[in-house]
Every structure is written in structure tokens, then in C-alpha cells.
Amino acid sequence: MNKSLLFALGAISMWASVATISALTRSLPPFFVAGVGLCLGSLLTIHRLREWKVSPRVFLNGVFGIFGFYFFLFNAYSMAPVMEATVLSYLWPLLMVLLSPVFVPGSRLGPNHILGSLLGFAGAALIVTGGKLSLSMAALPGYLMALGAAVVWAVYSLLTRRLPPAPDNAVGGFCLASGLLTLALHAATEPAATPDAGQWLTILILGLLPMGAAFLCWNRAMKSGDPRQIGALGNTTPLLSTLMLVASGQASLNGAAALAIAMIVGGAALGSLPAERLRLSWLQARRA
């Protein structure tokens, strides 16, 4: 596995830990937790403050991605059933793969990229829902918000590759601006929060890892890696999240889990293979 995929896997692993780590913060307003967490995450690069200065396009893309994702996702959770909203938000890896040729010059889709992403998304949906999914037209605004979250994250990730290069530490500025905007939303739409000591510690961990270091790893991965391969790997997020919940005793695997795991792992492996290698193997097999 190359370095870019390792950075992507590091980010995915930290995001997958959110459900397990945030058990103590479920009674707190979500925009408060995200806002404080993002501000704390920005501290990881405060020692490189000069590198926060980037072009307006790069800065706006960073805030669009990080703040936009949380804005759409949390609104989706308030307007639609959490399970269905979560499944729709996990369309971002598939969208990353399908939109790669639009945003990354010279990037073409092979059958393995499309099939691997579809297989991975199907497995992700299965492990989140346990095979039980019920969409309701009454929750359509929430579904659209969840789709918006997926589109925002996919577009932000791909634009990171297309826009002028910027230091990885600039992500700290994106996190701080996004955190302040999220706290403004909290003040405008949510009740005041009074976390206890354990909740503050949890928010600190969330801020330094999933809302700080993970964005740094993701930025590094997107700048140097193949978005088609990274998108396919992204489908492992709900799998890792579920396994962490099981390991911590907060969840148990249902009967559909084995099939879902096979689909996710198989889809990630298939989508991560370079199409050129597959074509070469096919030509060699024909010659043989």
C-alpha cells in the first residue's frame, strides 16, 4: 500500500472512531461539539501559523468542505431518520470515484473502479442498516441534506487535488474558520451546552483526532494519491466504525454483517487496483 493510501486509511480510521468515542457527548448539541472540536483541531498546526495563509480559492474550498459537510449532515439528522441519512451521506466515496474524471485531468474510470465502488457502497449500506432500510417521502428534505453532505465532501476532496498546492498545515485555518461558523450556528439554533469533565475530555479527543489530525491526513492523501483508489477505500469507514462499536461493547454484529464485510473489503480491494495493471494482466492472459 502506497503512502497516500496509508494517509487515507489513517483519516478513515479516525473518522470511524467517532461513534465509539462520542458516546459521552450524545446529550450535547451536535453543532456545539463539532464547533469546539474543530477549533481544538486547529491547534495542531498553530505552531505553523504562517502556513495558514493560502489563496482565497484554497481557503474557501477548505471551509466549504469541512463546515459544509457538518452543516448538511447535522441538518439531515434533524430532518430524517439517522440510519437512512447516514447511508445517503456515505455516498461520498462513490461520488469521489465517479467524479474523478471531471476534476482530475487524465483520470479515467476503469470497470474495476466503478464496480468496486458500487460493491463497497452496497456493503456499507448493508452494515449500517442490517438489511432494513425504509425511505419515507416525508423525510425527503433530510435525505437531500444527507446527499448534500456526500456531494460537498466528494467535491471538496477532488478540488484539493485540482487547486494550487498549499501546505498541509493550512488545514488548521480551515478547521478554525469552520469551527467558528459551526459555533455561530450552535448559538443561533441550539440550546446552551454545559459539558461535564468527562464530556470535555471526549470533545478534546474528538478535536485532536477526527476533527484535526484526520483532516491533515486526508489532505495529504488527496494531494498525492489516486482519488479513484481513495474513494474505494472510503467505503470501509462504516465497517471500521461498526467493528469499533462491537469491540467496545456498544453494538453487536447481525446476520448480514459477514456479507457486508465481504462486499466492503472486496469492493475496496477491487477499486484500489490500478486499471492499467488489470489491463496488462488481461493482455498477458490472452497471450498465454
Supply the key terms.
mainly alpha; 288 residues; globular
Average pLDDT score: 88
Would you list the SSEs in sequence order as H and E?
A: HHHHHHHHHHHHHH
What structural class is derived from the secondary structure elements? Answer: mainly alpha
Q: Work out the radius of gyration.
A: 19 Å
Distance between the termini: 29 Å
- Biggest sheet: strands, sense, closure? none
Work out the number of β strands.
Answer: 0
Write a structural description:
The mean pLDDT is 88. The chain has 14 helices and no strands. The protein has helices at 3-16, 18-21, 30-42, 56-79, 82-89, 92-103, 111-129, 140-162, 171-189, 197-224, 227-234, 237-247, 257-272, 275-287. With 288 residues, the protein is mostly helical. Helix content is 74%, strand content 0%. Helix 7 (111-129) packs parallel to helix 12 (237-247). The protein is globular and about 45 Å long. The longest helix has 28 residues, at 197-224.
Topology summary:
Elements: H1 3-16, H2 18-21, H3 30-42, H4 56-79, H5 82-89, H6 92-103, H7 111-129, H8 140-162, H9 171-189, H10 197-224, H11 227-234, H12 237-247, H13 257-272, H14 275-287
Helix pairs in contact: 1-10, 1-11, 1-12, 3-9, 3-10, 4-5, 4-8, 4-9, 5-7, 5-8, 6-7, 6-8, 6-11, 7-11, 7-12, 7-13, 8-10, 11-13
Would you summarize the structure shown here?
The chain has 288 residues and is an all-alpha fold. Helices cover 74% and strands 0% of the residues. Helix 1 packs parallel to helix 11, helix 7 runs parallel beside helix 12 and helix 7 packs antiparallel against helix 13.
